[in-house]
Amino acid sequence: MKSKKPISVIALMVSVFFQALSGLGGGAFLIADPTGETLDLSLSFLINSPFPDYLIPGIILFTVLGVYPLIVTAGLWKRKYWGWLGSIFLGIVLLIWIFVEILIIGYQSEPPLQLIYGILGIVIMFLTLLPGTKNFFIETK
Prior knowledge:
By secondary structure, the chain is mainly alpha-helical. The chain has five helices and no strands.
């Protein structure tokens, strides 16, 4: 018997889908313009990084934080256990991305994207691990 999606599952799907759209959009802009000018990013941010421009970070952003969350969203929508597991992994990856970004370019408060996406990573982890969310997906395993 299929049960109704708990509000925590809906909130999780919205959060993961938001990350997918952000990753796809941001990544696409960085791939299309590796100088970062389109997004008002200076190449000087990358001085202490292994990257000469934003192409590789853009590809990583597009695939790992864009395409992957889109797949996870589909799994959550279809009530697949792998979608639930994928959302745990996504929360961890997003937090690692923000942590490494802060290590490389420092904390940037304007705009506060690092803070917003750090909080989003925590929210995704929190929603994923709520008992109601977990039980909703474990029932179908």
